[in-house]
Amino acid sequence: MPTQKPYRLPTTVTPERYELKLTPDLSTWTFAGEENVSIHVREPVREIVLNAAELEFRSVSLRLRNGTVLQGRAALDTEDEQATLSFGDALPPGNCELQLSFSGILNDKLHGFYRSTYKDAKGREKPLASTQFESTDARRAFPCWDEPAFKAVYQVTLVVDEKLTAISNARVVRETVLPGTGKKEVVFADSMKMSTYLVAFIVGEFEATDPVMVGQAPLRVWAVPGKKHLANFALDIGKASLEHFSRYYGIPYPGDKLDLIAIPDFASGAMENLGAITFRETALLVDAKKATRAELERVADVVSHENAHMWFGDLVTMRWWNGLWLNEAFATFMEMLAVDAWKPEWRRWDSFTVSRAAAMQVDGLKSTRPIEFPVERPEEAAGMFDVLTYEKGASVLRMLEQYLGAEAFRDGIRLYLRRHQYDNAETTDLWDALEDSTKQPVRALMDSWIFQAGYPMISVEKDGPAIRLTQQIFHYLANGSDQDRKWHAPIFLRACTKSGVVTRTILLSDKEQRVELADEVDWAVVNAGGHGFYRVRYGSDLIDVLKLELQNRLSAVERFGLVNDSWAATLAGLTSLIDYMGLIELLHDEGDINVWTTVIGSSHHMNRILDEDQCRSLEKRLRALLSPPAARLGWTAKEGESELDSQLRGDLIGTLGTVAEDKACQERAKELYAQYEKDPDTVDRNLIPALVAIVAHTGSSTEYEKFYGKFKTAQTPQEETRYLFALANFRVPKLIDRTLDLTINGEVRTQNSPYLMRGILLNKRARDRAWSFLKAHWDEMLRQYPDNSIPRMCEGVIGLVDPALEADVRRFFATHPVKQGAKQIEQHLERLRVAVACKERWRDWLGS
Ligand SMILES: [Zn+2]
Question: Does the reported pTM lie above 0.90?
Fold first, then answer.
């Protein structure tokens, strides 16, 4: 007998096809279930073990092939969420039918089979029920083999009130009214063979768009009544991305239909249930005429991401949760590819550089982790839904794609999907397929990025007619350990010598490497194109020459890299704050939104770290830095300008009016906001978030009441969250207290409250009150909020940049551990340490 972990299911009995009939009752928040599972008994067993949680078994029986029916009983293990079914005798090998009936609850924790409510046009509260099974919550809806490797076919039947809509993974085969009951029975077709975490059922009042066909499959967007008019943008990108992926993967969409469904209460962004993808409303429903470009991009991203999963994740699935990164990193990579093809003017791969930088920020901590690590208990996978899995994972895939060439990479992916479709795979299977297809040492290269935490800083020195590259692990906090670590780093080099500009791609595998060039080097760009997941530090002669002509010698993405690496070096104490300010003050001609995004991000970061008197100097320098580019763009949209320029206008003005405290800008913003209220169409829509942020930043109770009212009566999901989260930016103590109350008094959906709380912690004027409030109401928050949101809320502690607060934060988490996010909490604490260390180091910096 192999050693068996108690929480893992034995493989002696496997499911092949589930027939599942559920009858949810939306008035009592309960459901009844009947289940008939065709199983295969592989060797004689005395009992059948499967997963179940918060379910009550009503009956258990087994029909053998010869027609004999054995009555059984279920013993529940609440610790391991398992049910052991025994039937008296040993069961013979072969196929048989397991018949179960059971009941359960529609819970309010946004996982398993759960409840959601919304107000209709007349203000009446309406119920609906939805599912969220990843990672291990299918077992809360029906007894099942709830591990990704037990793939099976699902035939679902839902018995619901006659007036309600029922949706599941496959198309509806028939709907039959059950006379005299007020109910109907909705029977769905068989699903493809897939994992339990992808099963879905949604029941409520819903309206759909007309279907558009993608190959043989109808695609629809669903929303609660009154919101269908916000669905067209998602339908467009839904169709475009599905078609893109069918071509890219060389395999048609594997389901028989695809429904994209907006759910009013939803714990994450979206969930890739095959054929029935669920979303939070902001990620699917949008008014394409009124929303900002960033809000539209978010919908395009999430829809593409989920659609990419229909193949990568659903058709081919990780064998166990350690392989989660493969699902998520790949879907994130494909999301960029599809959105970039759909709207090239958004330059999606350029803005991906901001996501890459966010991953590098966490991955430069001692408390980071490798992308893939051993996962024992399934709940350990909960800590994997983070920036390292998604953004670092996607970044290293992009780096590999650029190194191998886009077509060679795609051919390897196609081979991988063909080999493992309707089955499970592991990371090593992907490298096998890519190596078979490209004949390149993909495994050695990628293992250094996937199984090893962190990334290197590449130092670049001029060395006669050559440059010398040295790699060393990057850390924000000085660290004696790990200095020997090495990566196989694809170096994309562009160098200018006397004989002209040359480009080279080199695989840096040793600690140090000399790259010979024909002539003496004038300047060089390492990480040309910005695809490398590493930082670059130039020797002083090289950086000085680059700085002479930043706009000519570096592309926008490369300028982003230079500024971002320099900011990281400043936080790490390798570069002085004065040098960093000197670098960004060279950006007077800069017109690229991503370069400004990193500058603006660092401004907020400095503002949180510096003392009040130091902030006055910072504000002055920021005004001098940001005013010229803001003036070039002006306050109104220009004929024919790009959408990115329009967004940049908002970003610059928003920063000038808040962290740079530009009084003239604040006055103009307030006037313009008043104009927007009277006549919305006269104001550039990409400017609205900036105006709202400035009005909140400078606002009193009059503005607060107005925004609160707008949150309550918003017409789109984007407007609702815009005004809700703006409430976190007011700076008057009594208004801060009101927003704090909102986080637990039931007025805000629990899907949003944790992020509102995070926002208040990050508000410098509110942080002391917010931290006290969090400590006082911690148990209440744990009870109300979805589990996955707790570590994300706690990210707000990075704003508590003060030695005494830091000590208090450490004491608090020592006695209040967050078990589903221990790693993330450790990372937040280290980010806070980095900031407090900077505060101490920068004590004498007063700028000038
Ligand atoms: Zn995903």
Answer: yes
